[in-house]
Structure formats: structure tokens, C-alpha cells
Amino acid sequence: LARVLHTHFYSRRARMPSYKLTYFDVRGRAELARILFHYTNTPFEDIRLKREEWQQLKATGKAPFGLLPILEVDGTVISTSVAIVTYIAEVTGLTSDTPLERARGNMMMDGLHDVAVALIPNYFIEKDEAKKVQNSAKFNVCCCNIWNCRLSL
What we know:
By secondary structure, the protein is α+β, with helices and mostly antiparallel strands. The chain is built from 6 helices and 4 strands, in the order αβαβαββααα.
């Protein structure tokens, strides 16, 4: 019995999950996940889609909310960049030991996510280059000054 339990325990423990990260061929919302995989030397398949490929994938219903990025873990799909990054941090040992430390880490991640969402219209919707420059300058003065102060908390 001990030999069976030993074999079962070590065969399950040694098996590394298969990770497939799917996003567009840009940095965007999947970049932090890519960085975490590389930082932790965790093998993953980096699938970068063209717009036409995304339309085909979207039609299959594989993306739970009809959005990218998605991460497949042994065939199970996780969607949204925050859930993906949180999962990667957890399985690679990058999360904190205490609930308070984890909450502060989540606070920073969610705050940075809010900043990224605020930037999207300027980079992907606004067509006037002069307005893009003006909006970026406003963002730098407002948000970056606030974040510089808060990052030191």
C-alpha cells in the first residue's frame, strides 16, 4: 500500500500543467501574464491571433465572455486578464503568505488595471494624433503623479 501511495503522490506531483495563453499579436492585456510565465520559467504556449483568427475563435464560444485573453490550463479555460494573472501568481508561488499582503497586491493589480482601462480609448478609439498627445499629457500629470505617491504606501 505504501508503494502505491508513494507512486500515486509523486506521479501527480511531478506532472506540469499545460498552459496556452491566447491573445492578439500585441502586448495589451496578456503582457503581464507573459511576463510572469517568463519570470518564473514556466513553459507556456503563446498563441497570438490575427483579427480574422479571433473572429473564428470567438464564433466557437471558447472565450467565456467573448473576450481575450484566455488561458487554457490542461484544456480548462480561464478568462479575463486579472483572473489569469492571479492564477499564474498563485501556481508559481508569487503570492504573499498573509491575507493582508495578498489584498495589498490585489489592490495594486486592480488599480493598474483601472489605469490601463482609462488609457484604452486614447490609443484605440481616438483618431486625432494631436488629441492623443494632449490626452497622454493630461494622463501623465494626473494619474502618474497620484500613482507615484501611492506606490510608496
